[in-house]
TrEMBL record:
Belongs to the aldo/keto reductase family. One of its GO terms (molecular function) is alcohol dehydrogenase (NADP+) activity. InterPro entries: AKR (IPR020471), Aldo/ket_reductase_CS (IPR018170), NAD(P)_OxRdtase_dom_sf (IPR036812), NADP_OxRdtase_dom (IPR023210). It comes from Branchiostoma belcheri. The keyword NADP applies. Transmembrane segments: none annotated. The keyword Oxidoreductase applies. This is alcohol dehydrogenase (NADP(+)). Keywords: NADP, Oxidoreductase. It is an enzyme of class 1 (oxidoreductase). It catalyses: S-nitrosoglutathione + NADPH + H(+) = S-(hydroxysulfenamide)glutathione + NADP(+); S-nitroso-CoA + NADPH + H(+) = sulfinamide-CoA + NADP(+); a primary alcohol + NADP(+) = an aldehyde + NADPH + H(+). PROSITE patterns: ALDOKETO_REDUCTASE_1 (PS00798), ALDOKETO_REDUCTASE_2 (PS00062), ALDOKETO_REDUCTASE_3 (PS00063). Residues 19-293, 331-599 form the NADP-dependent oxidoreductase domain. Signal peptide: none annotated. The gene is LOC109473367.
Amino acid sequence: MAAAGPTAVLSSGKTMPLLGLGTWQSKPEEVFNAVKVAIDAGYRHIDTAWAYRNEKEVGQAIKEKIAEGKIKREDVFVTTKLFTSFSRPEHVRECMMQSLSDLGLDYVDLYLIHSPLCFKYGTNPFQHAGKLEEIFDDVDYVETWKAMESLADEGLAKSIGVSNFNSQQLERLLQNCRIKPAVNQVELHPYLAQQELVDFCKRNNILITAYSSLGAPGRPKSFQSGEEEPVLMEDPSVLAIANKYGKSAAQVLLRYHLDRGVSAIAKSVTPSRIQANIDIMDFSLSKEDLVSLGQLDRKLRYVGANLIKMAATVPLAALSSGHKMPLLGLGTSESTSEQGINAVKTAIDAGYRHIDTAWMYKNEKEVGQAIKEKIAEGKIKREDVFVTTKLFITFNRPEHVREAMMQSLGNLGLDYVDLYLIHSPMAFKYGSNVFQPTSNPEDIFDDVDYVDTWKAMESLADEGLAKSIGVSNFNIQQLERLLQNCRIKPAVNQVELHPYLAEQDLLDFCKGNGVLLTAYSPLGAPARYGKREADPVLMEDPSVVAIATKYGKSAAQVLIRYHLDRGVSVIPKSVTPSRIQANFDIMDFSLSQEDLAILGGLDRNLRYLGGHHFTTHKYFPY
């Protein structure tokens, strides 16, 4: 392939020019001329997308340049992208065929999943008048990828890749793919260096392509945060380096990407700028200048900062029952009365779709009332919200399990719960008050085998009263015994979990057996009953605070993200609206492997909520 400038050999074996022309936000009549000017200037990589609505003009320009004899089809590398409303596997080929038809081509050189976010077929998130969550679609991008692989098998795409994926999403894709993604196209520039993502992709032979490489100066208002944002091309450091080399700020920024080993697509429809953007092959930046530009990183996302916040979707886990559970939920322990109702309503408005309660919390009525009100408002449907509650420990005898469930359903005002958990392997006598101080707790212990309790739980699942069933506070040995004696395996084990109590062996066991681990007290239970002054405060740990500062996040946000990045579900509890919102605003970053290792190194086997006055119980789990 004849190309101006450096190229990269992709994992597919194909060669891709590192510098390309971007066509986003280029009007149809302008993009036609822009592509022709670019080809004349020496560009051999043209980037478009179904979403840009300019594939016809891109294709027509290429066709004319081929007719002129300026290029052959094999000389130009064409990238386009699968739109987010075609993410269902059955629609992937349809979108590809539309793009090929518009481009007038038999194949594209690179086809990308435009985003891991999926929207309902036939909708357009950029034109939707209502709330974006109304058109969210629950499609696993791994399933979308399998359909992408079929396009590669057909030869409709020479290479396939993704766009806007983070390292955790890429890692999951790599673990479940037949053809690895060749490219990940993301926003990248000195103000958003994404070094951890760049390093991850390099280690896994995935080429990073930078969009908005110049700081997206022409982005529309819908992609702006609404706050005053610094202009990258006016940054004093960028201008000083440009002056040093006798180049423009734009040329320095494009060279920055190439010298990092990153592909870059620069968008312009102005002939002089198109030419200037490719005239960067006669210099390279020194190591010192690359370091200077790297130090400008402020994790500033120009494109989609506002949309990402609105469209942030909580990752889902496929449970062993076949149902899906949002990995982030609202914990409601000690949230009662009007305060509890308002907390749940605030959470639903913020985007939470997983609410965790329990018979023991004495707030199921409030949780149910809040859900009922939000359904009445049209904010959600019943099937949109995942409700977890738990069997109280005085109902562990098999003959009382259904009674407890029916009480919970009555309190919640629901016909079923999405997840019902045995709250503890320890059973206590029916009708007893386990929270009433007693000189001898053994007086209220009950010798009930949790395997027998589980068989009654299975009957609830058979009836459809619980879509999934699981346990809480079970250790490895108890889980192992349950797995050996169950008909329906536990979908979830909910336990205390945080960096001071990492429970890595338990996590590994659960992952190995298809049991999802859910973390309660993920922030270190700061409001716990019976708090001891000597206990270290997790959210004040210097390592946690340092990592929070690094990402521009709160300690709580870092701790919640820690669980998601370990593949653990998490249910932080709060009744404060600002904290409920902040705890949810963690979808725009991920922790690096190094930071996860630092947090993992804090483990001191410290259990904040241990129930140590029950240590003589036959099934005490700790």
